[in-house]
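User: I'm putting together a teaching handout on how multi-component assemblies are represented. Below are the sequence lines for each component of a complex, exactly as they appear in our records. Could you produce the 3D structure of the whole assembly as structure tokens, so the students can see both representations side by side? Please keep the chain order the same as the input.
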Amino acid sequence: MRQAGRSLPEYRRLREGISMLDSCTRPDLITEITLQPLRRYDVDAAILFSDIVVPLRAVGIDVDIKAGVGPVVETPVRTSKDLERLRALEPGDVPYVTEAVGALVAELDERPLIGFAGGPFTLASYLVEGGPSKNHDKTKALMYGEPELWHALLGRLADITISFLQIQVAAGASAVQLFDSWVGAVGPDDYRQAILPHTRRIFAALGEKAGGVPRIHFGVGTGELLGLMGEAGADVVGVDWRIPLDEAVRRVEPGKALQGNLDPAILLAPWEVIEERARDVLARGRTAEGHVFNLGHGVLPETDPDVLARLADLVHAESVRTPA
Amino acid sequence: MRQAGRSLPEYRRLREGISMLDSCTRPDLITEITLQPLRRYDVDAAILFSDIVVPLRAVGIDVDIKAGVGPVVETPVRTSKDLERLRALEPGDVPYVTEAVGALVAELDERPLIGFAGGPFTLASYLVEGGPSKNHDKTKALMYGEPELWHALLGRLADITISFLQIQVAAGASAVQLFDSWVGAVGPDDYRQAILPHTRRIFAALGEKAGGVPRIHFGVGTGELLGLMGEAGADVVGVDWRIPLDEAVRRVEPGKALQGNLDPAILLAPWEVIEERARDVLARGRTAEGHVFNLGHGVLPETDPDVLARLADLVHAESVRTPA
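Assistant: Of course. Below is the structure of the complete assembly, with chains in the same order as your input.
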């Protein structure tokens, strides 16, 4: 249940007067914010509090997260000359991540910590557009019009992402989740040609070199891409709420697990509706070789934390709990 | 090719100092703006220049279209009391539409004019949220939590939409297109239960009572809904670019035609790329019982008009032109 924080009063209190990127670069805050939802909810894992632009900022990109807007890149990346600004990420660039992951793993004991990074299309979009974008026009113009530059850009982003996730695994993260949030903006042919090779390299580097942790992959509106996201090397394919989970199962090759897919907006409905829908997701999930119950996207800020607690309990009561 | 205007210098000149809603309520401007793309492009039909909120404003909803934001509803519709504000639409409420359609049909001669209206989910979202929305939270909270109020709201919106489209057909429009732009925000079960009955009523009213014009239906990100959109009574199901057109064909019942589905962002790429992709869409479209070539969404503002002209010529050269 990503972004659970923004619905929690204790999170909002903690963040008062502290910018998003400051809170992602202070080990004490990363640790505390990661733990907050676990004090309320009986969930099976924690996910590292971070932001997809953290490793970009760490290598010197002039990105900031503006409240109510999102990540804004002062000097967009649009030429091969610009690529030089995307240098390799070293552990020394993100000491706060190493420190926070270590503290969290000690604190969490048996409960696994999931590492966190943004996926290559989404990172490229923020860098090329210079900020959030409705249609990703400039990004796609580069993808369609300058394939060599595109692949060079995604290659550098994959390098940074591999390093960022390996740092988290080295510090004790038990799994990783790669959020290519906006990759659903492209169709399957473009995904296969322009994005998959880079995602595959990221997942391969984590499978072989970093102790073989489970790899989760997620994007919004990716109904047509689920099979390819599995082919890219994800062990668990995240699914939003637009596609019934049993249909999603049919689109992913055997041997993969699925994660999802309750519409976060359902949590704003009366409990009877939530319960019925959660049971439906669980039932459809039983058609998969493995199913990690989750929302189909981040927790909406206006969600009642007590409803989330009740949902976590319902899911545990209904499903077989497997040891970590 | 909807929203072609915003890429045309002559459109931007004409609109200078005139608000969007003013331009949608002046017959001379509706007519001129509808015709502008046809002077540049050898397209097979014109689509009426309008906005989905025009009929809402005509029945007295305090909606305005703010530049750079979109439709903003001063007093949102969220209770059964609020529904009273959604009274029936009469021809006398939109004389400018009747006048403009009449003038256009005379001017267009053999070339068909496609009527235009917004679909029930999208209209409901603007009314309930009070403006554009990323997640449609309040809309879905109402849909999930207060189904009776939801169906009453969509029933009134369907009445208004039926009337708005019948007025256009009575004035001479040869076909209608219903844009439920954001309906892809819900999954198929919700679509079937909460939206389809209202869309079906709209299409049925146009089939029986209004001379049986062809009915086109479109929404963004509707890969999982295409079959249901056909079941709702569309003769032509519009498809965005996220799903390969031949796969879309397999999701729609026999007897339906498809429309789409070139990614509008491809038009920002070099001509060789555009040509290859356009031919690919045409080839996949040949697997359908009928295919209306189109972009998968509106024209992007930064599109070069000469590229659109070249695309229209390519499509005509490649496809069999059927008489109107």
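A couple of points students might notice: The CA atoms of residues 262 and 281 of chain A lie 7 Å apart. Chain A touches chain B at residues 135-137, 140-141, 144-145, 184-189, 221, 223-224, 241-244, 247, 263-266, 268-270, 273, 297, 300, 302 (CB under 8 Å).
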